Amino acid sequence: MKQTELKVQGMTCQHCVKAIEKNVSKLDGVTEVAVNLANAQVDVSFDEHKTDEAAIRAAIVEEGYEVLN
Ligand code: 9UX
């Protein structure tokens, strides 16, 4: 299991939080998504044998947000 902490620009309301949670959670291998709106941070735990950080980043960008780190 791996964890990544991403800085995400563009999240401004709870609907943004839900959109990111939903799109990242649907990736096979993602076990936990924690979105912190105040810190603009998205922490994701995932099984590195099933998915990778690039796929997680893509799922966020797909929803219209920018990953800064
Ligand atoms: Mo809220 Mo987020 O109205 O892109 S959904 S700002």
Give a topology summary.
Blueprint: E1 2-9, H1 14-25, E2 30-36, E3 41-46, H2 53-62, E4 66-67
Antiparallel strand pairs: 1-3, 1-4, 2-3
The structure holds dioxo(di-mu-sulfide)dimolybdenum.
Dioxo(di-mu-sulfide)dimolybdenum is lined by residues 12-13, 15-16.
Name the descriptors:
HMA_Cu_ion-bd; metal-binding; Alpha-Beta Plaits; copper; binds dioxo(di-mu-sulfide)dimolybdenum; alpha+beta; 2 helices; four-stranded antiparallel beta sheet; Cu-bd; globular; 69 residues; Copper ion binding protein
Give me the secondary-structure category: alpha+beta
**Ligands in the structure?**
dioxo(di-mu-sulfide)dimolybdenum
* Biggest sheet overview: 4 strands, antiparallel
Enter the CATH topology name.
Alpha-Beta Plaits
* Total number of helices: 2
Enumerate the strands of the largest sheet in spatial order, edge to edge or round the barrel.
2-3-1-4
What oligomerization state is this entry in?
Answer: single chain
Whole-number total of structural domains: 1
Percent of residues in beta strands?
A: 25-35%
What's the level 1 CATH class? Alpha Beta
Mean pLDDT: 97
Shape: globular
Under the CATH scheme, the architecture is 2-Layer Sandwich
Q: Helical proportion?
A: 25-40%
- The helix/strand order is EHEEHE
End-to-end span in angstroms? 21 Å
Q: How many runs of DSSP E, i.e. beta strands?
A: 4
User: Rounded to an integer, what's the Rg over CA atoms?
Assistant: 11 Å
Uncertain runs are none
